[in-house]
Amino acid sequence: MELVNNAQEFGYDILSISDHNTTSAYDELKGNCMYGKRPFIFKGSIEWTTYYGHMLVLGANEIIDWSIAKPDDIDSWINKIKMADGLIGVAHPFKLGSPICTGCHWDFLVRNWDKVDFIEIFNGNSPQNQLYNEQAYKLWSDLLKEGRHISCSSGRDWHRPKKVEDNVAINYIGLEEISSSQIKQSIRQGNFYVTLGPTCSIQVKAHSNSRFFQMGSLLNPGMYEVDVELGETSNNLNGNFMVKPTKLRLLQNEECIEEIKVTEQLRSYKVSLPLKSGEFRVEVVGSFQNKPDVKLIIANPFYVS
């Protein structure tokens, strides 16, 4: 209950509790009549905590036994989780492992990364300052270069109260309504972004038929208009850390194809450009606690083929 109360204070709309090798928190919340209140509790989540890595399983219909998974057969277990309609995420893949934190480093051999829904690129408090998060971002970027369809995410590892000097990253999910099915669909598609505070709206519109697309959508090659609208930083989360967006970056196949200066006076940006086969995504960089060129928003890709 303490975790849920803190989530309410932070202003979270949705909370997924992926505890280590247990789902007992959901039984406790049900007994305390938390269902139906904010934050919305996204059930069926667990963090596989093994000697070979931590794997996030979200929204599965059943709990799959993690205890006999081996480093070289993780793909078969991923398939079983998919059959239970679960989402798969790799948690903090480059965090220090044994003897500091047994199993925290990802040592499973994944042969088919397309079955993995997301990689946690921002983990823990003040994630922008952690080297292991930079390494996770590079892994995700390299997989995109290979043509993989995989999203990035953030997670708090919320084991204790946050210090005043620490900030956190947040996932913003595109939803028509807050429901388990909608949340699962958006995460599976990749219709969400990771932020250190600033909010945004991202849409891509085809010149050929004026159809709008959301993050994670499949596009045909051609001319598109990219609409990005920047919002405010949530004061409940990271509003006191001197967050200032300065650049909007458009990346295609992990190369920056256009960089636009961001000003406080102009919050809406429209760019027309040709999209070729591969992936296309948006990032917003700026200053954070007076540190320049920090990735403030990392949006998940659109896929062009």
UniProtKB/TrEMBL annotation:
The record's section on Gene3D superfamilies has: Metal-dependent hydrolases (3.20.20.140)
* GO molecular function terms attached to this record: 5'-3' DNA exonuclease activity; 5'-3' RNA exonuclease activity
Q: Identify the domain of life.
A: Bacteria
Q: Which NCBIfam families match?
A: CehA_McbA_metalo
Q: Which PANTHER family does this chain map to? A: EXONUCLEASE, POLYMERASE_HISTIDINOL PHOSPHATASE N-TERMINAL DOMAIN-CONTAINING PROTEIN
Protein name in the entry? Polymerase/histidinol phosphatase N-terminal domain-containing protein
Q: Which organism is it from?
A: Liquorilactobacillus cacaonum DSM 21116
